[in-house]
């Protein structure tokens, strides 16, 4: 029987599972938590688990367990706010992506460094609105020190090929791209494509959470003459193997990351402290108090 937790705190690591990754293993599940944030309810209950050294981890299925939310419908503000409110300092986000490069084969893993935004402005994408203006830095959207940890850990796991320093383009979807778009994204320098990294990564930055996406290639999109254009069948065919390795990877990454967090050795976490509160432009006397109340759910000292 599922234990429903009524209050949760001191969870330092959040894992967002994408297509195909709807649960974790190797961790003791403490229960499920269903918070209501000022931005509504997250995609699904948070699964709260613990390592054998007592480090708490929250798992959230981005599209819900059973995959009922389109990329456009994912309530990213509620997801990020819920994770931040229970203490999360680092998010490891998983995503199934298409490859725009010959050398990134289906089933390879990628730790991206950059993002190009091709969403259509229809997803709520900021916490700072309604009388509060803030501009966080986003030149480097991911946490490269966390990518380093993941890259080092995977070397001992005998798993798939890992690529680094790649550019991820985020499209709106839910339909896949046309061939003309796929060629255009390649000409722009994009290496992989998904529908999920935005606004998730931007909101994590606004909430002062270090964020790294781990991408799992499932297809060659539709630019490659010798391959079938991407379809859900093709994606699913490669997802299961990817998700199995993602769980194995997490089993090894989480203890290493947890230890570094305990010892305050994660630079991106230290650097982000106070960064969003300091990015508020609106003069204190002009701030909408109702909006500030909401913002304090994620940034208590703002
Ligand atoms: C199932 S193919 C398209 C779908 O898969 C990816 O989801 P996620 O990033 O959550 O793994 C992609 O972004 C699309 O949402
Ligand atoms: N080709 C593709 N385009 C967008 N998102 C994807 N997720 C997996 N494959 C994809």
Automatic annotation (TrEMBL):
Catalyzes the reversible phosphorylation of S-methyl-5'-thioadenosine (MTA) to adenine and 5-methylthioribose-1-phosphate. Involved in the breakdown of MTA, a major by-product of polyamine biosynthesis. Responsible for the first step in the methionine salvage pathway after MTA has been generated from S-adenosylmethionine. Has broad substrate specificity with 6-aminopurine nucleosides as preferred substrates. Belongs to the PNP/MTAP phosphorylase family. MTAP subfamily. Pfam families: PNP_UDP_1. HAMAP family: MTAP (MF_01963). Its main location: cytoplasm. The record marks 177, 232 as: Important for substrate specificity. It catalyses: S-methyl-5'-thioadenosine + phosphate = 5-(methylsulfanyl)-alpha-D-ribose 1-phosphate + adenine. GO terms for cellular component: cytosol; nucleus. GO terms for biological process: L-methionine salvage from methylthioadenosine; purine ribonucleoside salvage. Its EC number is 2.4.2.28. One of its GO terms (molecular function) is S-methyl-5-thioadenosine phosphorylase activity. NCBIfam families: MTAP. Homotrimer. Pathway: Amino-acid biosynthesis; L-methionine biosynthesis via salvage pathway; S-methyl-5-thio-alpha-D-ribose 1-phosphate from S-methyl-5'-thioadenosine (phosphorylase route): step 1/1. It is found in: Cytoplasm; Nucleus. This is S-methyl-5'-thioadenosine phosphorylase. Residues 13-254 form the Nucleoside phosphorylase domain. Keywords: Cytoplasm, Glycosyltransferase, Nucleus, Purine salvage, Transferase. Phosphate binds at residues 19, 62-63, 95-96, 196. It comes from the Eukaryota. Substrate binds at residues 195, 219-221.
């Amino acid at each position: 029987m599922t234990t429903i937790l009524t209050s949760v705190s001191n969870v330092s690591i959040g894992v967002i599972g994408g297509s195909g990754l709807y649960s974790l293993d190797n961790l003791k599940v403490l229960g499920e938590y269903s918070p209501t944030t000022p931005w509504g309810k997250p995609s699904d209950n948070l699964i709260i688990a613990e390592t054998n050294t007592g480090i708490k981890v929250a798992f959230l299925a981005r599209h819900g367990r059973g995959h009922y939310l389109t990329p456009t419908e994912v309530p990213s503000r509620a997801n990020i706010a819920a994770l931040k409110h229970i203490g999360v300092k680092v998010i490891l986000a998983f995503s199934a992506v298409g490859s725009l490069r010959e050398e990134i084969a289906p089933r390879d893993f990628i730790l991206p460094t950059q993002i190009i935004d091709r969403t259509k402005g229809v997803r709520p994408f900021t916490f700072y609105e309604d009388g509060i203006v803030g501009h966080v830095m986003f030149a480097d959207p991911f946490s490269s020190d966390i990518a380093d940890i993941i890259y080092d850990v995977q070397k001992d796991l005998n798993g798939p090929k890992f690529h680094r320093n790649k550019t991820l383009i985020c499209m709106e979807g839910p339909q896949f791209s046309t061939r003309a778009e796929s060629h255009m994204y390649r000409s722009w320098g994009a290496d992989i494509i998904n529908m999920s990294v935005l606004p998730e990564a931007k909101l994590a930055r606004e909430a002062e959470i270090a964020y790294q996406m781990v991408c799992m290639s499932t297809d060659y999109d539709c630019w490659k003459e010798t391959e079938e254009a991407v379809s859900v069948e093709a994606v699913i065919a490669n997802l299961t193997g990817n998700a199995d390795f993602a769980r194995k990877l997490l089993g090894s990454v989480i203890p290493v990351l947890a230890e570094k967090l305990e010892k305050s050795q994660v630079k991106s976490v230290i650097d982000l402290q106070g960064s969003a509160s300091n990015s508020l432009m609106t003069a204190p006397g002009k701030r909408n108090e109702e909006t500030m109340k909401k913002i304090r759910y994620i940034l208590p000292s703002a």
